[in-house]
């Protein structure tokens, strides 16, 4: 935790979000750039298509040893950057500086050969997004789904008053309502995992100008494709080569990721607000912790702060994801630099999202379901079974059953006894009357249990 941090993700919440630091910190970005530059140098060497000699295994290992960027190395890069005023060039000079002291000293001018800084950057960001999704974000979403599915199974038989338009409605099961959210998340998660992150390696304006000038007979598009796809080994969130670009990769696949995360977050916003209402109604309780304080003045309170915290952070994250989606696909002519500073904010959006996941999971770990309160509130609304009664009466050919029940119930507070007396007045068989009287708010839940 940085005590003077302006961003709460690096201050108050750092212990909760530090899992993202290996992907979105400034040091992490430098590390991923070094990986791209190092692997590109190795690929040129092993391709046999240029004058660059083939490196031996020891030399390749020396290059890859630089990927574990130490704090000292990071500071050295930042010092070089003060001179160059260019962060990718600083990485290039750092690599040359380090490799000039090895058997590779005669090959250092092949570092960053024919490529532009955006070739390095876009592949680095593709790798960052891939790793952060696979190792942190998707795992968090899966854990939420797992917890919701556990609640769904545990409470699949628990009847609950439903509300549509804020009014009492046909009963449901608490477990089924949890399943609604897990099912929505499962579908969106599959969509997220299927997105391939596009990257490019084709020079200053996307035409391989420098590559072709130096080696016109080399199939550079095929080299690019092979190089970018080489990062997919052991990686579930795959990269794909985009061969047709300007100086920048168009970021459309980034937007697909951000839009999907935003949709996932919107489902969770919906869930947080529903849980807040269930807690407010007393249907869901929160297990008190002995030394915790709910309110600074009202001793009795246990506030749903985890769900509220999650909701707030999801809102911040979605605002950023929405901005990314509007901004990143647009670049003046062959490129402008306005996307660069925006990309540095990816970690902020991911951080608020991840913090929201953690808060939601914490909230779920503290809840207890008040079955008795749910039952009492459901039984207090016997009018919810009139849907079933009028439907059966339609089946039996009774004239205007909906209207009859509307007259009995609308705007009135009735009891189950009132409904049974109404049933006794109906001109239907005793068998049908018995069928109607067997319907109660507790058993009128349709296929809710089976749907779970």
TrEMBL record:
UniProt pathway annotation: Purine metabolism; IMP biosynthesis via de novo pathway; 5-amino-1-(5-phospho-D-ribosyl)imidazole-4-carboxamide from 5-amino-1-(5-phospho-D-ribosyl)imidazole-4-carboxylate: step 2/2; Purine metabolism; AMP biosynthesis via de novo pathway; AMP from IMP: step 2/2
Enzyme nomenclature, EC number: 4.3.2.2
Presence of keyword Lyase: yes
Record-annotated Adenylosuccinate lyase PurB C-terminal domain positions: 331-445
Residue intervals of the Fumarate lyase N-terminal domain: 11-312
Lineage of the organism: Bacteria, Candidatus Nomuraibacteriota
Entry-linked Gene3D superfamilies: Fumarase/aspartase (C-terminal domain), Fumarase/aspartase (Central domain), Fumarase/aspartase (N-terminal domain)
Family: Belongs to the lyase 1 family. Adenylosuccinate lyase subfamily.
Molecular functions (GO terms): (S)-2-(5-amino-1-(5-phospho-D-ribosyl)imidazole-4-carboxamido) succinate lyase (fumarate-forming) activity; N6-(1,2-dicarboxyethyl)AMP AMP-lyase (fumarate-forming) activity
Domain of life where this protein originates: Bacteria
Protein name, as recorded: Adenylosuccinate lyase
Function: Catalyzes two reactions in de novo purine nucleotide biosynthesis. Catalyzes the breakdown of 5-aminoimidazole- (N-succinylocarboxamide) ribotide (SAICAR or 2-[5-amino-1-(5-phospho-beta-D-ribosyl)imidazole-4-carboxamido]succinate) to 5-aminoimidazole-4-carboxamide ribotide (AICAR or 5-amino-1-(5-phospho-beta-D-ribosyl)imidazole-4-carboxamide) and fumarate, and of adenylosuccinate (ADS or N(6)-(1,2-dicarboxyethyl)-AMP) to adenosine monophosphate (AMP) and fumarate.
BP GO terms, sorted: 'de novo' AMP biosynthetic process; 'de novo' IMP biosynthetic process
Pfam family of the protein (one): ASL_C
Keywords attached to this entry: Lyase, Purine biosynthesis
């Amino acid at each position: 935790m940085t005590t003077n941090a302006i961003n709460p993700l690096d201050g108050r919440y750092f212990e909760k979000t530090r899992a993202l630091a290996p992907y979105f910190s400034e040091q992490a970005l430098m590390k991923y750039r070094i990986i791209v530059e190092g692997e590109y140098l190795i690929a040129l060497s092993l391709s046999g298509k240029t004058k660059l000699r083939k490196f031996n295994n020891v030399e390749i290992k020396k290059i890859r040893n630089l990927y574990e960027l130490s704090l000292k190395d990071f500071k050295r890069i930042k010092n070089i950057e003060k001179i160059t005023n260019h962060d990718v060039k600083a990485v290039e000079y750092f690599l040359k500086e380090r490799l000039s002291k090895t058997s590779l000293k005669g090959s250092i001018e092949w570092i960053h050969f024919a490529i532009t800084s955006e070739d390095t950057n876009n592949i680095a960001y593709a790798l960052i997004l891939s790793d952060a999704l696979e190792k942190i974000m998707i795992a968090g979403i899966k854990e939420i789904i797992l917890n919701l599915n556990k609640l769904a199974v545990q409470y699949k038989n628990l009847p609950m008053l439903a509300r549509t338009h804020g009014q009492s409605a046909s009963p449901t099961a608490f477990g089924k309502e949890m399943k609604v959210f897990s099912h929505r998340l499962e579908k969106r998660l599959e969509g997220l995992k299927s997105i391939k992150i596009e990257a490019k390696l084709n020079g200053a304006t996307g035409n391989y100008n420098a590559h072709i000038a130096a080696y016109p007979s080399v199939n550079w598009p095929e080299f690019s494709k092979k190089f970018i796809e080489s990062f997919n080994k052991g990686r579930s969130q795959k990269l794909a080569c985009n061969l047709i670009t300007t100086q920048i990769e168009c970021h459309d696949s980034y937007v697909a990721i951000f839009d999907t995360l935003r949709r996932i977050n919107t489902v969770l916003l919906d869930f947080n607000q529903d849980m807040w209402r269930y807690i407010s109604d007393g249907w869901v309780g929160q297990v008190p912790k002995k030394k915790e304080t709910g309110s600074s003045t009202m001793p009795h309170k246990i506030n749903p702060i985890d769900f509220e915290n999650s909701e707030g952070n999801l809102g911040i994250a979605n605002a950023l994801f929405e901005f990314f989606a509007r901004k990143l696909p647009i670049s003046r002519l062959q490129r402008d630099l306005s996307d660069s500073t925006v990309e540095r904010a990816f970690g902020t959006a991911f951080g608020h999202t991840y913090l929201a996941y953690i808060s939601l999971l914490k909230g779920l770990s503290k809840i207890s379901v008040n079955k008795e309160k749910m039952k009492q509130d459901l039984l207090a609304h016997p009018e919810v079974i009139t849907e079933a009664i009028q439907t059966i009466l339609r089946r039996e050919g009774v004239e205007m059953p909906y209207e009859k029940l509307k007259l009995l119930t609308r705007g009135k507070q009735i009891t189950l006894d009132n409904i049974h007396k109404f049933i006794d007045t109906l001109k239907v068989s005793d068998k049908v009357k018995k069928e109607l009287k067997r319907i109660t708010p507790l058993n009128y839940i349709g296929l809710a249990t089976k749907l779970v």
